[in-house]
Amino acid sequence: MNHSYIEKIFKGDRVAIARAISMVENEHPESLTLLKSIYPNTGNAYRIGITGPPGAGKSTITNKLAKYYRSEKKRVGIIAVDPTSPFTGGALLGDRVRMTDVDLDEGVFIRSMASRGSLGGLSKKAKEAADVLDASGCDIILLETVGVGQSELDIARASDTTIVVLVPESGDSIQAMKAGLMEIADFFVLNKSDRAGAEQAVMSIKMVLNFKPKHDGWTPDVLQTTANEGRGIVEVAKKISEHSAYLTNSKLLGLKRADRVIERIREAIGEQLQIEFWNEERNQILNQKIKDVIAFKETPFDVVEYLLKYYKK
């Protein structure tokens, strides 16, 4: 990997950053070398996850938060995970279209990434893309998920602070989402709160939460916004700052980031083992044995045991 190219990333060169993220996303042969080279320069950006059901206004909140942080002279990176196009496999770019306040700002780098079937709401490569933005000098990284409902563990693992965005109409589904939301949300934002039913929705969320502290001792709050008008955004930013201070003062931020690294190492090892395991020979064994499984002469579990024993040999 060219040293001068890495230096361009560190200096915030937009072309170099875009190329680096593309290399990571497309699993270019040199992407691993790139990630190793930039890693010592990561760990400075504060990562904020924004998730919730489709149509809740996540993109608008992301846009307005970026604008707020730019007013504080902070460099902002945005990774907006869009649904995958069924034709090209790429992102549909719907989120980026809505970020009109900051899309031309030189201090903001926006990257739309395709979910590519990821169930956790984040693209598999979004965490590595966040590393690129971190190394490039971003102070804040906003990670916006595709919005797949309850399967949002990825965003909580990738972020320092996780925000769950809901709307008044979410009220009926709050009970159904109870367990997942309580686990991942550091606080809730009820967007479009100028609509009918907003106060009842806030009360519903509070009843579900019952304001019990999370396992880390932090008590999630519920804030109201009307993001398209910019109302409530300052309060959201202040709550993020409050949560960041809590994590720092309680020494939990370091532990949270260590857990994040452990999880990434486990994921990387799992991916590598899968690549190594499914060589041509084992695929042939699987194809041979599948006939017996379909004929009920063997069970899928017998095949698993056989392949694992074969692998260990």
Overview in brief:
The protein is 50% helix and 12% strand.
Please characterize this protein's 3D structure.
By secondary structure, this protein is of the alpha/beta class. The protein contains 14 helices and seven strands. A seven-stranded parallel beta sheet has the order 3-2-4-1-5-6-7, sandwiched between helices. α1 crosses α2 and α2 (14-25) runs antiparallel to α6 (126-135). The longest helix has 26 residues, at 252-277. It starts with a helix and ends with a helix. Mean pLDDT is 86; it is low at 84-92.
Strands ordered across the widest β-sheet: 3-2-4-1-5-6-7
Biggest sheet architecture: 7 strands, parallel
The helix content, as a percent range, equals: 40-55%
Query: Beta-sheet strand percentage?
Result: 5-15%
Q: What ranges have pLDDT less than 50 throughout 5 or more consecutive residues?
A: 84-92
Oligomeric grouping of the chains:
single chain
Shape: globular
Distance between the first and last residues' Cα = 37 Å
What structural class should be given to the helix and strand makeup? Answer: alpha/beta
Estimated radius of gyration: 22 Å
Please report the total strand number as a whole number: 7
**Helix run count:** 14
Indicate the mean pLDDT. 86
Order of helices and strands: HHHEHEHEHEHEHHEHEHHHH
Write the topology of this structure.
Blueprint lengths: L2 H8 L3 H12 L5 H8 L7 E6 L6 H14 L4 E7 L11 H4 L10 E7 L11 H10 L4 E5 L8 H6 L2 E6 L4 H4 L3 H7 L2 E4 L7 H12 L12 E3 L8 H17 L2 H26 L2 H15 L5 H13 L1
